[in-house]
Design goal:
The protein is an alpha+beta fold. The model has no long low-confidence stretch (mean pLDDT about 80). It has one domain. The chain is built from two helices and four strands. About 15% of the residues lie in helices and about 30% in strands. Strand 1 and strand 2 form a beta hairpin.
């Protein structure tokens, strides 16, 4: 590595959240990264998980997805607070 380059951050609890907007009132949320440490919280909130993609080599990394969350309703927004 060069002097001003550094490796990407990697810790025990780094989680990424990707927000995909589906209009003005709906969004899908994809949680990825080191989410195993938060297994109990995801299960309590009933957020499903799985491997995107196909089988074998095409299988992606494990993630949890909340599809089409209605962000105009306060009760739905509170579910996101993992």
């Amino acid at each position: 590595m060069k002097i001003f380059e550094s490796p990407p951050p990697y810790g025990k609890r780094i989680v990424t959240l990707q927000i995909e907007l589906e209009g003005t009132d709906k969004a899908s949320l994809v949680f990825a990264g080191r989410i195993y440490e938060y297994l109990d919280r995801f299960q309590n909130k009933e957020i499903p998980g799985g491997f995107p993609g196909g089988d074998g080599d095409e299988k992606g990394k494990y993630c949890r997805v909340m599809k089409s969350v209605d962000v105009s309703e306060e009760a739905e927004v509170e579910k996101v607070g993992v």
